[in-house]
Specification:
The protein is an alpha+beta fold. The chain has eleven helices and 40 strands. Among the domains are: 58 residues, no CATH class; 98 residues, no CATH class; 236 residues, Alpha/Beta hydrolase fold, catalytic domain (Rossmann fold), CATH 3.40.50.1820. The strands form ten sheets. Strands 32-33-35-34-36-37-38-39 form an eight-stranded mixed β-sheet, sandwiched between helices. Strands 2-3-4-5 form a four-stranded antiparallel β-sheet, with no helix packed on it. Strands 6-7-8-9 form a four-stranded antiparallel β-sheet, with no helix packed on it. It is globular.
Amino acid sequence: MSQPAPAADRSDATPAPSSFHRLADFVALPRLEALALSADGTRLAVAVQTLDAERKKWRSALWEIDPAGSRPARRLTRGARGESAPAWAPDGALLFTSARPDPAATGDGEEPESALWSLPAAGGEARMVVARPAGITGFAVAADSGAVVVAAPAMTGAATAEDDEQRIKARKDAGVTAILHEAYPVRSWDHDLGPSSVHHFWLGPPPDEERPGAPAGPSDLRDLTPEAAPPRGAGDDFVLSPDGSLLARSEDVPEGPAGRRTRLVVTATDDGTTRVLVDDPLADVHAPAFSPDGTALVCVRESLSTYTEPPDHTLLLVDLGTGRARELTPGFDRWPTAPQFAADGTAVHFLADDDGRHAVFRVEVAGGAPVRLTGDGAYSHLQVARDGSALYALRSGYGSPPVPVRLDPHAERQEPVVLPHPGDVGPLPGTVHEVTTTAADGVRVQGWLVLPEGASAESPAPLLLWIHGGPMMSWNSWSWRWCPWVFAARGYAVLLPNPALSQGFGQDFVRRSWGEWGEAPYTDLIAALDAVVARPDVDGDRTAAMGGSFGGYLANWVATQTDRFRAIVTHASLWDLDAFTGTTDGAYYWEREWGDPLRDPKRYEQNSPHRFADAIRTPMLVIHGDKDYRVPIGEALRLWYDLQKRAVPSRFLYFPDENHWVLTPGNASVWYETVIAFLAEHVLGQEWRRPALL
C-alpha cells in the first residue's frame, strides 16, 4: 500500500536553494508574456502573470518598463480580474483587454466579459472604451490616427448588437447549447466553433482624456465583416494601416471538400468594401504588417504540405496599389514569422528558428540575403522604435525566462541590453550546455543539456530525455509547462534534443523524415542519448523518456522500440494514428502528410505505435486533459486500456477540465508532483508516494 506524499506546497521554514526546489515557490514566480512600445518610444508596457490571492489562478497585470533602462519597472494596473494585450494609442493612452467590471454599470449579477479599456497617458483610473455581448477577443490600433478595430464573437444571423444579445439570451433561457454545423471543422484546440463567429468592428479613434465621454456601446460599432460565419478561423490575425483606412486580415476559405486554408484580404474601413489581396491555392497566407507609409504590406506565405513535401515559409512584399507580390526571402532556408517593417520602411525585421535559437533577422526591401541580428536566445513580441533607434523584444532561453531587451536594428549576432523588469527568478539549480551529435545518416543533431549542481564523474546524474512537440518546432526557449530546472533541482540531468522534423535546421532536415515519424526522429533521439550518456557526469543506467503531443507520440514509439529506459511519461500523446486523424480538430492537415487512411493506409500502419503495443515492457505514466481537441482524450483512453490489459506497470493522470496543456496553478503543481513521484519510483528506485491531493 503506497503512502501519500506530503503536499508539494507544504510550509517549510528552511530557505530553499532556489525557486525550483519547491513547487509552491515555482508556480508563484512572475511570468512576462507580452510587450508593447509607445509611439514616442519612451514607454514599454509588459504583461506580468502572478498568482491571485487564493493561489488558484494566474492573473495578468500591466507594468511599465523604461526603454532607456534607467528607471525601475513599475506596476500600472491592479484589477482583480487581470489585464492583458497591451497596446499604445498615439496620444499615449494604454489600451488593454480586461474582464474587470465597469464601475459605471448598474450590474445584473452576470460576470463581465472581456472588454476594451484605456489608461490615460497622464495616469489615473482606467475607463472602459467598448464592450460586446460575448466579449472582445482582440483589437488593433492604427499607428498614426489611433483608430481602433475590435474582434468579437457575434451570433450567426445577428444584424445588430441588440439582436446578438437577444439571440444569446434566448438560447440561455431555453437551455439550448446545441450547435448545428454545415461545414468542417467543428472545434479548435479546446473550444467549440459556432454558433457565433468572430467579426471585426470599427470603433474609430476612442475618446481621449480631454474629451472623455461615455464608453462606446455595442451599437456604436460598425461591423466590417458582416458575412463572417462559422467555421471561422484567423479571427485574431488582423492589423490596421497607419492611417486606419485599411484593415488587413487573414481569412479562412475552403480547401477541398473538408479542408481549410487562409488568404489575405483588405477591407476599407470607411465603407466596408473588401478585396482579396493574396489568394494562393497552394498556401496559407497570414501575419500581415503595413509599411510605415501604408503603401505596402509584408506577410508570411506558408506552402501547404503534401504527401511528399513538408510546408515551407517565405515572406511576401505586397504593393497595395497594384496587388503585385514578390518574395522577400527567396532561397532562405529557414521559416520566417512575425514580420515588422523597419522604421524607415527600407527593411523588414522578422523572427525565425535557427540552429536551436529563435532569432531576429533583418532583410532589405530592395533585396539581399537576410542578416541574423541576434546570437543566443529565443525572441518574441518584437517592437520597432518609430525613430529607427532600437528594437525591443522579450528574450528567453534555457538560462532565463522571458525578459525585456533592447537591440540595435543593424548589428549582427549582438548581445542585447536587458532592461529592468519584474520577472527575476533567482539562481538556477545547475548549468545549461549546447550538445551536438551525428545521426546514423551523417546529419548533425543539435540539442541542449541541463546539468544539476553537483553532477560529476563521482556522482553522475540520472538522465531525462525530453522530446518536443510540434513536430515542426524545436527546443530553444524557456517553458513554464516543461521546465527542466524543476527536475534539475531534484538531481536530474535533462537532455533536450532537436531530432528530424525539427524546424530551424533547414528544409532537408524536415524532409528527411516526412511521413516517417517512427524513423529518423527516433534514431536521432537515440544518437543524441548515446552521445550524452557517454559523459562521465551522466548516469546512463538510470534514464527516462518524456514527451508531450508529438513528443508524446515519440515517447509511445520509444516504448514500443526499446526497453533501455526505466520509465516513460507520455502527455497528450498520439497512439492510434488512424483514430487520431478522424477525431482531431483539423484532420485535413494531417491527411496531407499521411494520406487517406482508407485508401492509402501504409504510413498509418508503419508509424502508429498502437500496432506494436505487445512490445512494451517499460512502466508508463499517461497524462491527458479531456478538453484537448487537438489530441482527443480517446488516444489516452485507448493507450491506457492497451497498457492495462497487457499488465504493463502504468498510471493515468487525468484532467477533466484541462486542454492540450495544463493551465491552472493547482493542476500544474499536481502534474509536476505526479511526474516527480513516478520518476522517483522507477528511475531512482524509491517507494511510490502518491500525491496527497490525488
